[in-house]
Amino acid sequence: HVDDLVWGVPLIVAILLTGIYLTIRLKGIQITKLPKALKYMFENEESGHGEVTSFGALCTALSATIGTGNIVGVATAIVAGGPGALFWMEIAALFGMATKYSEGLLAIKYRTTDKHGHILGGPFYYIENGMGKKWTWLAKIFAFFGMGVGLFGIGTFTQVNGITSAVGNFFDPNAQNVIHLLGRDYTLAVVISGLILTVCVGLVVIGGLKRIAKVSEIIVPFMAVIYIAISLLLLILNANKIPAAIVEIVSSAFGMRAAAGGALGAIIVAMQKGIARGIFSNEAGLGSAPIAAAAAQTKEPARQGLVTMTGTFIDTIIVCTMTGLCIVLTGSHTAGLEGVAVTTRAFQMGLPVPAQFSAFLLMMCLIFFAFTTIIGWNYYGERCLEYLSNGSHGAVMAYRFLYILAIFIGPFMTVEAVWTIADIFNALMALPNLIALLALSSVVVAETKDY
Hints:
This protein has 21 helices and four strands. The protein has helices spanning 2-6, 9-25, 29-32, 34-42, 54-65, 68-81, 84-109, 123-131, 136-152, 157-171, 188-205, 208-237, 242-253, 263-282, 289-293, 301-330, 340-350, 355-388, 393-409, 416-439, 441-450; strands at residues 112-113, 119-120, 178-181, 184-187. A two-stranded antiparallel sheet has the order 1-2.
């Protein structure tokens, strides 16, 4: 009930309207300055002050956003809301780019440096330093829920469960090799993959931000390029079906395929599913990306804003669109399947390789996508805790070990309740951030004009 209340139509509308409002005030910056933003993405500032390069900060943010949502979320949206959900996902992303630009700009403008030379930034600092000390309570609410999302939801259990389930289904689909643990049977593949994952996450997480950024700079471009290449190959081989798929997506988005009288209902369902999954995938408005953006080596807030907004462009307008097109043109969403099985079937139908090999490719993409989401959200959770504990090193180290413990127990948990808790934390994390973005929109416009 709480999940339906906070992550329902009001929040989706609030996030979308914030994006539209910022787009109008910034005169469509996400369209007019996109070429410049893509250029800046690969051009690091030499003289900038920060802990990691702009590209490293973007990859840290992308590591948390390019995840299971791009493979599973798109499939779920299309199955529930029809092909038109993909159209509304794009619309949400287009306006979301203005939101992401504003988040990145404010993250740099209001970041601070602690006594150890450690750079701190994100929504809690632009709420406190931008809106004033009397709003510190709002910043603390954001930090508390942000930490919860990292430790109890998106960052750990859901991703780990996704990885180990995918490995278990591929290597031992009939559960022939099982061991009895905690009163239940688990396949050997699930237990072994869970242990390997715990060690890998531990090695990265204990190294802190610089190691997370370094790993992300290697894995994120690598995994994104491989997934885009596979999807592109599928689309090229089925190029003759693309025009019909686009027509189906657009007509479904406006309820043209629905029976007389049911068009409005079809539009509303497509909008709700598409916009909700789009926001869930690219996190525009949630306030997570500015935590990573704040560490970038730059002295220009607007410049980092441009780099930050490319995250939404890559995540949704490129990666999610490709997944969606692959699903619609192969018709895998009509087979009565759910989640990752929909995307797996699309790959198996559209690629001229054995079905087992297609399933293996998708499993590998899922593993990399989910792994980087785990390490990205650890960083977000740590920064939230640092703000709440006034930079206590002991609290951060304790959080890291708790995080690794959550990874360890993740494969052995039922995931339904965890997803619900994660959704609630996510929604409650977004609300303080949206208030700050609207309150500080004049600052964003002024900084943009100056730049």
